[in-house]
């Protein structure tokens, strides 16, 4: 929401000053964020990694079973990756597992911009004008409510991730919300264009809010959580960069193509995103795998072939503690196999 009740130069200065608080808090808070235990282990600082895990997962108890288990998994995963040497960009294309990850990362990066939000979020005012809502007061009120609504829906989505699972939320977001809402939006927009009834145009407002609820419950909180989970430690930073790159490329299309298309064909342009939603839902069904309930090391092998997955889990459980109970290893294999 961008609104300031005045005509002076402070109409834009106030907004920029307010937005500056977030980065300041982030810069100050960075000094209190612990280093990643996986990075610490990879760089030979195992004691520090052990302490971080103990502090955050066991109230400082270095001998806690969960902490010991996590340390074994991390150390084994780091050793395996050292042997595999998967640190270059070309590693994304060296084996089937990494190629699947590459595809899913691009899929998530583009869907966050091409799921229809590229019109609804960034061009809300032109969308409202297509259904007869032209009052600046009404537009500002809807815009402000839209932003607040999006925030709370995103928080709800983040709280549901461990209960419903990542893949389930993606599918619900796609088929249950965005596809259904786009059908209604097409009908209402076409109806208003034909009849010019005010009630038809106003009915578009709750549908826009409903669409955005289904969008943000999955597409806002999950991608930056899911991508590091499914990627080996040596490729996690590159995977995050690839996700952001694909998002920015898709957003560039939105920035330059959407206003031209909306001006040229109006509400009929929604059919493009309706078709995109069908494609994305199909791709989610085929390629995206569940990682709920898995440790980071277990989630990282979900996309591997059966043979590679079993070998990685064997190493993770046996390399650091040969006496590890066979039941523990069997349970981990069953969990990961169900998600694959």
UniProtKB/TrEMBL annotation:
Annotated stretches, region: Disordered: 309-340
Pfam short name (any one): Sugar_tr
GO cellular component: membrane
Record bears the keyword Cytoplasm: no
InterPro entries linked: MFS_dom, MFS_sugar_transport-like, MFS_Sugar_Transporters, MFS_trans_sf
Keywords: Membrane, Transmembrane, Transmembrane helix
Keyword check for Chaperone: no
Molecular function, one GO term: carbohydrate:proton symporter activity
SUPFAM superfamilies: MFS general substrate transporter (SSF103473)
Compartments where located: Membrane
Chief place of localization: membrane
Ranges of residues in domain Major facilitator superfamily (MFS) profile: 1-292
Protein topology in the membrane: Multi-pass membrane protein
TM helices/strands, residue ranges: 12-33, 102-125, 169-189, 201-226, 269-288
Family to which this protein belongs: Belongs to the major facilitator superfamily. Sugar transporter (TC 2.A.1.1) family.
Protein name: Major facilitator superfamily (MFS) profile domain-containing protein
Species in which this protein is naturally found: Saitozyma podzolica
């Amino acid at each position: 929401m961008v609104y300031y009740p005045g005509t002076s130069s402070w109409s834009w200065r106030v907004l920029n000053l307010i937005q500056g608080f977030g980065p300041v808090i982030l810069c100050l808070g960075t000094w209190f964020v612990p280093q990643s235990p996986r990075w610490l282990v990879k760089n030979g600082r195992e004691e520090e990694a052990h302490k971080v895990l103990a502090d955050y997962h066991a109230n400082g108890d270095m001998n806690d079973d969960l902490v010991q288990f996590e340390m074994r998994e991390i150390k084994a995963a780091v050793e395996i990756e050292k042997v595999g040497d998967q640190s270059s960009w070309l590693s994304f294309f060296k084996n089937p597992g990494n190629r699947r990850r590459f595809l899913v990362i691009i899929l998530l990066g583009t869907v966050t911009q091409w799921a229809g939000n590229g019109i609804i979020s960034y061009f809300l005012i032109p969308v409202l004008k297509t259904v007869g809502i032209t009052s600046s007061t009404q537009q500002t009120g809807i815009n402000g409510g839209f932003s607040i609504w999006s925030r709370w829906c995103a928080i709800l989505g983040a709280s549901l991730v461990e209960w419903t699972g990542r893949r389930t939320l993606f599918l619900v977001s796609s088929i249950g919300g965005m596809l259904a809402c786009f059908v209604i939006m097409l009908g209402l927009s076409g109806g208003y264009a034909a009849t010019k009834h005010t009630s038809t145009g106003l009915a578009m407002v709750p549908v826009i809010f409903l669409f955005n609820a289904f969008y943000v419950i999955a597409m806002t909180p999950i991608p930056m959580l899911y991508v590091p989970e499914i990627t080996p430690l040596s490729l996690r930073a590159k995977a995050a960069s690839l996700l952001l790159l694909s998002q920015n490329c898709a957003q560039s299309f939105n920035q330059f193509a959407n206003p031209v298309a909306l001006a040229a064909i109006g509400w009929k342009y929604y059919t493009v995103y309706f078709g995109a939603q069908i494609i994305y839902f199909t791709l989610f069904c085929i390629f995206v795998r569940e990682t709920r309930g898995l440790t980071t090391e277990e989630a990282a092998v979900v996309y591997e072939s059966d043979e590679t997955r079993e070998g990685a889990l064997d190493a993770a459980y046996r390399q650091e503690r040969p006496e590890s109970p066979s039941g523990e290893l069997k349970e981990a294999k069953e969990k990961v196999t169900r998600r694959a």
